[in-house]
Design brief:
The protein is mostly helical. The chain has a domain of 77 residues. Helices cover 57% and strands 0% of the residues. It is elongated and about 130 Å long. It starts with 23 loop residues before the first helix and ends in a 5-residue tail after the last helix.
Amino acid sequence: MATEKKMGRKKVPITSEKKKEINLPQVIYWIERQSTAEEIAGSCGVHIETLSTAIKKEFGLTFPELFKKHACIGRQSLRRYQFKLAEKNVAMAIWLGKNYLGQHDPDNQNKAPPNDEKLDSLISAIKKQGAAPSQAQDSPISK
């Protein structure tokens, strides 16, 4: 029999690129600054699954677990900066008061002014007497 000639493309062995090393202290640094897994993987030049595998291998934690452990440092730093900024910035002081101390702007739309009851009773007393004073006589402008 004749030898069969193979058709198609020549098979080229697949060689993997050199493994990229992930700088794990840098990963922790970015987590402390609230970076997402996608952002960190992108800055390291690796796929998110590669990052997750490296974190699991090194720390024995998933990315969300590691994030929860280290992100508090970034929030603490941000909070410290906000309080420092509030010393000079009134808007920041108001925002912190509302968000951390439960302060709020007064709701004047639904509430009557506090002296309405006294004013109503005074008007009622004047009407009962039957003689409302004339504004023209008591006005300082007419004098």
